[in-house]
């Protein structure tokens, strides 16, 4: 929002808003239902809180979002209209850029945030179930807890003080590939990329709980 291409071409005018660094990812989070600042930041762990605040203010000035009581951030009609653009970018990235994940692409916290968001809540147990995740190589934070209860789920990065029902020990790359739909969970379990420890019914049900990326084939 601080620079211009100096062109009246609609592509240039749109890119001045959409192509600003972090903007497509902020729009992605808003489109997927994150409205509070902390939730937006959890989906964008490598942006500073100060820069995120600046980007949100710039998007508000550009008319793409509005701030409501709470405070919460919601897309305007103009912001919602960029949904197909974000989807098209995601589908392109899935097809041409996501086949080989480099180490700098892997973030355990972001992966868990995405896993939580895509859980198939209709398949979750009726009773509260606590699943603890640990990744190889060790991540920061080192442990994650999913607290599952229909229809809501919580993601904790500090011990919630609840008994754990199912333990997941996973290679970070393998789990990311499972989420992207590039590797099936049964295959990851067979080759040791993902290991489950817990009661047999929960281990058998676990694959039915996990969703995959909305861009997966």
CATH fold label of the largest domain = Nonspecific Lipid-transfer Protein, Chain A
Provide the β-strand percentage band.
15-25%
Major beta sheet, strand line-up = 5-4-3-6-7
Elements, N to C (H/E): HHHHEEHHHEEEEHHEH
Q: Quickly give the CATH architecture of the largest domain.
A: 2-Layer Sandwich
List the helices and strands and how they pair.
Blueprint: H1 10-18, H2 23-31, H3 37-42, H4 49-61, E1 65-68, E2 72-75, H5 77-80, H6 83-96, H7 108-117, E3 129-136, E4 143-149, E5 152-156, E6 166-171, H8 172-180, H9 185-190, E7 194-198, H10 200-209
Parallel strand pairs: 3-6
Antiparallel strand pairs: 1-2, 3-4, 4-5, 6-7
Helix pairs in contact: 7-8
Offer a concise description of the structure.
The chain is 41% helix and 18% strand.
Give an overview of the whole structure.
By secondary structure, this protein is of the alpha+beta class. It has 2 domains: 10-96, Winged helix-like DNA-binding domain superfamily/Winged helix DNA-binding domain (Arc Repressor Mutant, subunit A); 103-209, SCP2 sterol-binding domain (Nonspecific Lipid-transfer Protein, Chain A), CATH 3.30.1050. It has helices at 10-18, 23-31, 37-42, 49-61, 77-80, 83-96, 108-117, 172-180, 185-190, 200-209, and strands spanning 65-68, 72-75, 129-136, 143-149, 152-156, 166-171, 194-198. A 5-stranded mixed sheet has the order 5-4-3-6-7. Strands 1-2 form a two-stranded antiparallel ribbon.
């Amino acid at each position: 929002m601080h620079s211009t291409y100096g062109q009246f071409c609609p592509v240039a005018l749109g890119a001045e808003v959409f192509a600003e660094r972090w903007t497509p990812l902020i729009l992605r989070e808003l489109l997927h239902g994150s409205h509070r600042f902390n939730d937006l930041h959890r989906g964008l762990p490598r942006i500073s809180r100060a820069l995120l605040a600046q980007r949100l203010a710039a998007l508000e000035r550009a008319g793409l979002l509005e701030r409501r009581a709470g405070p919460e951030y919601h897309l305007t009609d103009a912001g919602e209209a960029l949904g197909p653009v974000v989807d098209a970018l995601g589908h392109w990235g899935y097809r041409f850029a996501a086949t080989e994940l480099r180490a700098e692409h892997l973030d355990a916290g972001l992966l868990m945030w995405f896993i939580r968001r895509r859980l198939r809540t209709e398949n979750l147990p009726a009773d509260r179930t606590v699943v603890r995740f640990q990744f190889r190589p060790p991540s920061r934070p080192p442990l994650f807890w999913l607290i599952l209860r229909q229809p809501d789920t919580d993601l904790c990065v500090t011990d919630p003080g609840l008994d754990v029902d199912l333990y997941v020990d996973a290679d970070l790359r393998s789990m990311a590939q499972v989420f992207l739909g590039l590797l099936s969970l049964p295959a990851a379990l067979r080759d040791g990329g993902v290991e489950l420890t817990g009661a047999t019914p929960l281990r058998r049900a676990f694959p039915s709980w996990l969703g995959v990326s909305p861009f997966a084939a």
